[in-house]
Specification:
Layout lengths: L1 H11 L11 H8 L8 H8 L30 E3 L2 E3 L1
Antiparallel strand pairs: 1-2
Amino acid sequence: MRAQIILKWNIQRGVPVLVKAASLGHLKENLDVFDWKLDETEKVVMDGLNENKRFICPDWHVFPDSDADGETKKPSKVLGNGALYN
């Protein structure tokens, strides 16, 4: 269920999610995120876990929210529900 919560949180934020499943059971669990939603309190809790770190920081690209050293200088904003959502 923890993986489903993280998947759902990203889906609701508008973040494209690519998942991997080692078994048919895991694949079914990964797909079982479209008939429920995280409420506002749950989203706030998940947002509070943010450490403003990128998981992928290629040397060949400087992101608009990065300083000269490639470090994130402000939280990235993601579109969700028609408005900017941190």
